[in-house]
Amino acid sequence: MKRQLLILLIGATCVVFLSSISFFIYLKRLHRSVAYLQTVGEYVQQGKLDDAIAILKDTLSKNQRIAEAHAALGMIYNKKDMLDEALSELKTALNMKPDLINIYQEMYLIYKKKGMEEEAKSALNSYEKLKGSR
What we know:
This protein has a single domain (37-132), classed as Serine Threonine Protein Phosphatase 5, Tetratricopeptide repeat. By secondary structure, it is mainly alpha-helical. It starts with a helix and ends with a helix. The chain is elongated and about 80 Å long. The longest helix is centred in the N-terminal third of the chain and has 44 residues, at 2-45. The chain has 6 helices and no strands.
């Protein structure tokens, strides 16, 4: 009986230890993702758009499934008047996370710049629909 209790206690300790390590790794990754977004934001505020693009492209080369990075890249491309590239990145972000409401606003602006009135109206309608559901 004592042996079983000891084995159970050792097993529980191992589970807690492994869970702690997993949580630590998760927090470290989360911190890195927040840090790169903060750096990108600072670069954009300073007008260092090419540096911000480089960080986002590097991030996406490691993990293509970060919708926020695609969205940020699309918004920066819009600032640089690289409209086709901007739309491509924003659409990629929306495919991953259709509820990123600010993307619809950005797409509206891009479609207006390109003179694509129907698409602009559709993006605005999507924005209004999502905004109303929150």
